[in-house]
Amino acid sequence: MRFPLDLRFKIISLASRISVRDADDRLLFHVKQKLLKLKEAVTVFEDEEQTRPRYQIAADRVLDISARYHISDMDGRELGALQRRGMRSIWRAHYEIYQNGEQLFEIREENPWIKLADGFFGELPIIGLLSGYVFHPVYVVTRVSSGEMVMRLVKQPALLETSYRLEANPERLGKHTELTVMSVLMALLLERQRG
User: Fold this and answer.
1) Over the stretch 9-40, which tens digit does the pLDDT of each residue have?
2) Do 105 and 183 contact (CB within 8 A), yes or no?
3) Residue 129 pLDDT
4) With 80 as the cut, is the pLDDT of residue 45 above it?
5) C-beta neighbour count of 67 within 10 angstroms
6) Rounded distance, CA 143 to CA 156, Å?
7) DSSP of the chain
8) CA–CA separation, 80 vs 11, rounded Å?
9) Rounded-to-integer distance, Cα 46 and Cα 24, Å
10) CA gap 191, 95 in Å, rounded
């Protein structure tokens, strides 16, 4: 997995779908969120045809602001979990990444005003088409033990799609790269649902 990663949302789709490509423009993941589920469930595939599932992300409870999302591979081996910080996440997105019960990283929104403006202008007729060029929400992933930033997710200018760039230093992440990327993908899906 070579960074930066490009995440592109399909515009015309009932359920959220994300294609993730690496710096060599190679497809790494195709994420499909299941539609109309009370208990959140996401499958991450290796191909766009959705024939080779690689990861499963599932909520531990039904429609809850503090739900924990367990991330596992298709053999059932748990990589870790992502948890939204309940009321803290109402204004500014705040998620925690766990492995074996220990919090390793947290995901925070840099400036909640930008996401608010992006969501508001994105819903306006005609003007909303241009909001993708003006407002660019940013999310940062930091290591809890040191406060060091290890990843940065930035919305990219786009007209007819939603695109994000995920920048990271894999040496800083070490063996936690897959867990962190899957956590960022799930957090991004949850934030898009919130608006």
Assistant:
1) 876 656 678 899 999 999 999 997 776 666 78
2) yes
3) 66
4) yes
5) 18
6) 24
7) -PSSEEEEE-SS-SS-EEEEE-TT--EEEEEEEPTT-SS-EEEEESSTTS-SEEEEEEESSSS-TT-EEEEEETTS-EEEEEEE-GGGGTTS-EEEEEETTEEEEEEEES-HHHHHHHHHHHTSTTGGGGHHHH---EEEEEETTT--EEEEEEEEP-SSSEEEEEEE-HHHHGGGHHHHHHHHHHHHHHHHHH-
8) 30
9) 16
10) 11
Q: pLDDT of 94-136, one tens digit each?
A: 999 999 999 999 999 998 777 777 777 777 777 766 666 777 7
Locus of tokens 């060091």: 148
